[in-house]
Amino acid sequence: MAARKLTRQDLREAAEKYKNWGKWGPQDEIGTLNYTQAEDIVAAARLVKKGKVISLALNFDNNGPQGAKSKYPAMGRINPVHTMLRTGTDAYSGVLDHRGIRASDDMVVMPLQCGTQWDGLGHIFYENYMWNGYDCREVTSAGAQKCGIEKTKSKMVGRGVFLDVPKMKGKDALEDGYAITCDDLDKTAKAQGVTVKRGDFVIVRTGQMERCLSEKKWGGYAGGDAPGVKFENCYWCHEKEIAAICTDTWGCEVRPNETKDANQPWHWVVIPAMGLCMGEIFYLKELAEDCAEDGIYEFFFCGPPLIITGGTGSPINPQAIK
Amino acid sequence: MAARKLTRQDLREAAEKYKNWGKWGPQDEIGTLNYTQAEDIVAAARLVKKGKVISLALNFDNNGPQGAKSKYPAMGRINPVHTMLRTGTDAYSGVLDHRGIRASDDMVVMPLQCGTQWDGLGHIFYENYMWNGYDCREVTSAGAQKCGIEKTKSKMVGRGVFLDVPKMKGKDALEDGYAITCDDLDKTAKAQGVTVKRGDFVIVRTGQMERCLSEKKWGGYAGGDAPGVKFENCYWCHEKEIAAICTDTWGCEVRPNETKDANQPWHWVVIPAMGLCMGEIFYLKELAEDCAEDGIYEFFFCGPPLIITGGTGSPINPQAIK
Amino acid sequence: MAARKLTRQDLREAAEKYKNWGKWGPQDEIGTLNYTQAEDIVAAARLVKKGKVISLALNFDNNGPQGAKSKYPAMGRINPVHTMLRTGTDAYSGVLDHRGIRASDDMVVMPLQCGTQWDGLGHIFYENYMWNGYDCREVTSAGAQKCGIEKTKSKMVGRGVFLDVPKMKGKDALEDGYAITCDDLDKTAKAQGVTVKRGDFVIVRTGQMERCLSEKKWGGYAGGDAPGVKFENCYWCHEKEIAAICTDTWGCEVRPNETKDANQPWHWVVIPAMGLCMGEIFYLKELAEDCAEDGIYEFFFCGPPLIITGGTGSPINPQAIK
Amino acid sequence: MAARKLTRQDLREAAEKYKNWGKWGPQDEIGTLNYTQAEDIVAAARLVKKGKVISLALNFDNNGPQGAKSKYPAMGRINPVHTMLRTGTDAYSGVLDHRGIRASDDMVVMPLQCGTQWDGLGHIFYENYMWNGYDCREVTSAGAQKCGIEKTKSKMVGRGVFLDVPKMKGKDALEDGYAITCDDLDKTAKAQGVTVKRGDFVIVRTGQMERCLSEKKWGGYAGGDAPGVKFENCYWCHEKEIAAICTDTWGCEVRPNETKDANQPWHWVVIPAMGLCMGEIFYLKELAEDCAEDGIYEFFFCGPPLIITGGTGSPINPQAIK
Predict the structure, then answer these.
(1) Which chain D positions have a beta carbon within 8 Å of A67's beta carbon?
(2) Is the complex ipTM higher than 0.95?
(3) For chain A, which has fewer Cβ within 10 Å, the N-terminal or C-terminal residue?
(4) C97: which residues sit within 8 A by CB, 6+ positions away?
């Protein structure tokens, strides 16, 4: 299909059409996480059948996708810097004994979005507004006074549904620049025998991260070309009433952008208008292997944010429990 | 009871008697987390009956227990410092538009043990050794090469059991310096109709944090006097074969120390000898209220660490799911 | 004297009357540092007569005025956090030898204004403007695009003049809240046999820091009540055409503020309107003793900023050389 | 000349032969900085003749030699991360007005040796010893208890002598791997009409940094091949009794190393045995141009360290004043 180029007007219309402002009241700060109900959590827990826990996080360290090995060390994001406050070598050297205990201790300096993470609802603005119509000036140098990540502290739990798109297509990974259509997602769900429902945490695999890991270089992973959801995906998320969407890429949506008129156009709509949190840089290799093996693509999902008050995102270690 | 003072010899004997080195093989780096089996996780998931998720974390911010408001700003631990890389005020001022997207972004500087956290197995040494007999020199300025917190990335899941000790004693909070006995824990479990089992994540409430929060001052919370488990508790943990123990205090064990010969004597035994991780600075108010209301003191526990490679601990947002 | 309360109108008039915008061209970003000419530097160098170098900095460490020991841990400023990347204990433990060299290395996390520092011209705005009429939106989350401290990289050199006000008044230290008048400064200069001239770096002692140091508590040093220059001092600075003014206090001007209508009213005028940099938290004990001993209150001053691009201030170790 | 390969035995002998331990008493922590006497400082000040101040520092920012653009992002050193605590965009947005002042403020995270810097005497160990025979265990995770950079707070002042080696050789820059001999230095001094004396701060230009800057890529600058002083230079420094040596490279000495038996063999001798501080990553373009123009290669040098207590180095903005 010779697709018409996406325009600012398309963005405006999509933002208007799929805007959820006010849907959960004027004070709401968590958006589509409201879709997940208590009964969904109970049902999701019933999916735990073999007692297997799979971490969906990349280790946080200097081998991460930011910085040194990336062509796109953009915008102040660096890999985590982990330093020690006390060490075992201090202990060995006898310099800690005056305290009566030999202990190590440590510290980290990290951008909240340097690795596996949530994008919170304070992360993206549409013009001067953020989710639910809050003024963008609520996010100051002192942090997000509205929609801070701490508001989601007990909300990142529910049914996880895994959509392994390259598997459906018979590939190891989607190529950079491939735009995942709504039809792709539906076909993948069907092929895997799973139905996406209201309140789900949908996790979409592209295989890009695994390709980078196996090649031992991140290349353009952090901000360069990537497979990802097509702009039309905002309609899909809206219709399905999902709680959140997560991928194994830097920015969920396809790169390069589908338009020259906006950077990350899908972000413009889903975060500020729809109120949808997204998970990025998820490590999905182990989950993909397990699902391929047992044929079960749904599970209990628990991805609690680190509740940094006023954070616009959070590094995480999400858990798929089967 | 005029208790005999704890001596270094007592520590040595306890460390020797309850040492689990080699129990899970010479390569093991996760200790008692091995107690939790797949079937325990499945059974724990069955405890999710009303679909309620309770966060057990304190917000990570400048109001935390370290630093400015503590009399014990010890050892380089500060409250988290959250700074912004881009803001909504930047967006409002129009300075982000050249990138084609209005986004905020942020960074944190934080000691791994500044708030709600896991103590990993690389945190405490007994003489020149850490868990499973590893040389303490495995924890260098470059981090923990053995027993790093990343080794537990999918292991902090299982049955949570909540022991509300002050409630059993008819109090709001235990007083500072009160040493919780094994008998206290057993009585609390009995009063609450729950039995501690192999592989459990045991969460002990003292009420100290809530007292600090209601008084709006941390005082000696971070390192000063506190209620906490008595040294004999290492015997209890060993016998029960629990996976981990967590409290709402800075250091789990009673303060001041039960001896002048060692600082935090219980730590000396449980971490390096027994291989028991511990959770500290847990926020238990909401959990206590919920359990008091429904009378159910067991739940699905999911407390994934932030997997900072080589970390000797981790800030967390543990979830109790009922 | 029953002083008339300072009003916003007074500020407005002072800002208007003493505004130097355009004086050094529309592109200027260093303000009154332009007053210091090459011949002044040559003349200042001639003041080096005994070869004595005096540091005017407080050590940068956890004993600094921010944070733990202050009642005013305001606005995200903390004491420096110094952590090691490699240590001598690592060396002793043998863990560095694989690199063929035994070296230690370190890192610091520090607010630029946590200790002895320059306030740069990007630090204070008057309404929507900064020095020389630049738009305040030039200081974004990405730093100061105009008037960054790096612009002053070779400009903090000239004649230093030391005005020891409490000495003139026969005191050890001025009391908190004492407002230093223009007359006080003139009398001090006269008593010390020195004349303030165009392009000078004027260093005013109040004795407050030494009082805090001797009492071993910072109390309200960082933002609380303090001796300091009276609002009228902006007139004095303007008339004398000094390059910069420095004190041993947190904020140079008297605290509490001379008005309820503005916080730090003198700052409003001198930085954005006049273009005057100021040095704060200078350690003046040793300089005071030396000047008292030799009776010479002028010297070669060299206080180079750490040129953090886009910095609105800088930690420093200024040198008085006699 | 077919040079004999440097051996460990050579290092041992050089360390033994040129060791200054005890020369300035058993308590000394500043080494060869003792060579600079008061009269040298007075004489150096007389060199200020045209009132020109030249900064010898590279800006501290994300364009620095560490990290993203280097092939050698080694050992945890990153470029500085500068973040804002309050901004002009906050001011513009009106969110600061509740404090009654519109101010910006900022913070930095930086390795002490990420840019223009001093290597302090706590930076390198020879076996288990540091300068003056102090035990290397004096440098713990809590910093350098001996020979911390703060000990040099008023000692980095004296006569600067600039040796522009490539200029003497008729080149823009020395090639990577070129080892500067003692003879090269002597010839350069002679060609420039300057004599190196006791207590001098000797600044050696290789031109490598300027080549990197003009090519707009750092390549192997931070740890890769580089021109630099030959091992024999330790004899030269010893004989000349200089205070410190500085270059425009990452590590002063030639890279690759002159031996396989040690990494940075010259460092092994000059820092721990001789007690010589060194300046690295100096920006010398402007100084080179000025000296070429006026033919004067000596000046007043003032390079005060940032006195981070226990620092083993310090970022600096050294000043050459002519």
Answers:
(1) 67-68, 73, 78
(2) yes
(3) N
(4) none
Please state the three-class secondary structure of chain A as a single string: CCCCCCCHHHHHHHHHHCCCCCCCCCCCCCHHHHHCCHHHHHHHHCCCCCCCEEECCCCECCCCCCHHHECCCHHHCCCCEEEEEECHHHHHCCCCHHHCCEECEEEEEEECCCCCEEECCCCEEECCECHHHCEHHHEECCEECCCCHHHHCCCCEEEEEEEEHHHHCCCCCCCCCCEECHHHHHHHHHHHCCCCCCCCEEEEECCHHHHHHHHCCCECCCCCCECEECCCHHHHHHHHCCCEEEECCCCCECECCCCCCCCCHHHHHHHHHHCCEEEECCCCHHHHHHHHHHCCCEEEEECCCCCECCCCEEECCCEEEC
CA B301 to CA B280: how far, in whole Å?
15
Contact between C107 and C82 (Cβ < 8 Å): yes
Residues shown for chain D? 322
Is residue A226 within 8 A of residue A254, CB to CB? The reply is yes
* Contact list, D84 vs chain A (CB under 8 Å): 141
Q: What is the CA radius of gyration of chain B?
A: 20
Measure in Å the smallest separation between the Cα of A147 and chain D Cα atoms: 17
Mean pLDDT to the nearest integer, C101-122: 97
Closest CA to C9 of C272, C269, C275, C251: C269
Nearest chain A Cα distance for residue D142, angstroms: 7
Q: A141 vs C142: CB contact, 8 Å cut-off?
A: no
Q: Which of C100, C104, C85, C106 is nearest to D266 (CA)?
A: C100
If phi > 0 it is left, if psi is from -120 to 50 it is alpha, else beta; for residue A314 that is beta
Q: Which two tokens stand for residue B77?
A: 């631990």
Using only C-alpha atoms, what is the Rg of chain C? 20
pLDDT tens, chain B, 322 aa long: 445 689 999 999 999 999 999 999 999 999 999 999 999 999 999 999 999 999 999 999 999 998 655 555 457 789 999 999 999 999 999 999 999 999 999 999 999 999 999 999 999 999 999 999 999 999 999 999 999 999 999 999 999 999 999 999 999 999 999 999 999 999 999 999 999 999 999 999 999 999 999 999 999 999 999 999 999 999 999 999 999 999 999 999 999 999 999 999 999 999 999 999 999 999 999 999 999 999 999 999 999 999 999 999 999 999 999 9
Cα–Cα nearest to C6, from C221, C216, C233, C172:
C233
Mean pLDDT of C274-281: 98
Chain A residues with CB within 8 Å of chain D CB: 62, 67-68, 70, 73, 76, 78, 81, 83-87, 90, 93-95, 109, 137, 140-142
Mean pLDDT, rounded, of chain C = 95
pLDDT in tens, C137-158: 999 999 999 999 999 999 999 9
Residue the block writes with tokens 């190590």 = A104
Which H or E element spans position C85? strand C81-86
Residues of chain D in contact with residue A85, where contact means CB-CB under 8 angstroms, are 141
Interval D289-300: pLDDT, tens: 999 999 999 999
Q: What is the pTM of this model?
A: 0.96
D63 contacts in chain C (CB < 8 Å): 309
Partner residue opposite B68 with nearest CB, options C62, C68, C95: C68
Q: Which of B88, B141, B321 comes nearest A87 by C-beta?
A: B141
Asked if D76's CB is within 8 angstroms of C127's CB, the reply is no
Q: Where are the beta strands (DSSP E) in chain B?
A: 53-55, 81-86, 102-103, 105-111, 117-119, 124-125, 139-140, 143-144, 157-164, 179-180, 201-205, 228-229, 244-247, 277-280, 298-302, 313-315, 319-321
Q: What is the mean pLDDT of chain A?
A: 95
Torsion on CA atoms C226, C232, C236, C241, rounded to nearest 10: 90
